[in-house]
Amino acid sequence: MEFIYYGMKIMLFASLIRAFVIAEPLKRHVLAMSVLYTVLVAFLSFLFFLTQFESPNYRLWLIWLGVNLVMTYIFFKLLTTFDESAMFWVVLPFAVVVIFNEPNLVPFWQYLLNGTLYSGKRIIRGQG
User: Fold this and answer.
1) How far apart are CA 106 and CA 128, in angstroms?
2) How far is the C-alpha of 32 from the C-alpha of 96, rounded, in Å?
3) Where would I find the H helices in the chain?
4) CB within 8 A of 41, min separation 6: which ones?
5) Full-model pTM
6) What pLDDT, on a 0 to 100 scale, did the predictor assign at position 101?
7) Residues 44, 9 contacting (CB under 8 angstroms)
8) What angle do CA 39, 107, 72 make, to 5 degrees?
């Protein structure tokens, strides 16, 4: 399940970067691109992870989405700033940091908020 989630996140971010690089009008809408990515990641994370647990930590999830929005905004702003220079290729690998900033992968989230995103028991579907 996590493999599909991360694969979809990678393909989503790669397609947004490709559209951002090719289409000139998108370079003026950095905030819109960041909001679009954050909304789609929120949908994917809710669909794949939060619906599987009885008591997910929604507070941590919302904080994580806010940080994700800021990180993608900074990333796209840097891509716009260094569009026609060699620094573009230095900034581009930082997409990995944006994609894999997950509450259960980065120990900083567990230390900061004293918990994980998926607290509680997993809901087992199909049992009556």
Assistant:
1) 36
2) 20
3) 2-22, 30-48, 58-81, 87-91, 95-99, 107-113
4) 9, 12, 65, 68
5) 0.79
6) 78
7) yes
8) 30
Q: Which two tokens stand for residue 46?
A: 């809710």
Q: How many residues does the chain have?
A: 128
Per-residue model confidence as pLDDT tens digits over 22-45: 888 888 899 999 999 999 999 998
Query: What is the torsion angle, in degrees rounded to the nearest 10, for the CA atoms of residue 72, residue 31, residue 67 and residue 118?
Result: -90
Comparing CA positions, the residue from 28, 106, 123 lying closest to residue 67 is 106
Q: Please give the Cα distance from 82 to 73 (Å, whole number).
A: 14
Higher pLDDT, 10 or 84: 10
Q: What percent of the chain is modeled with pLDDT above 90?
A: 26
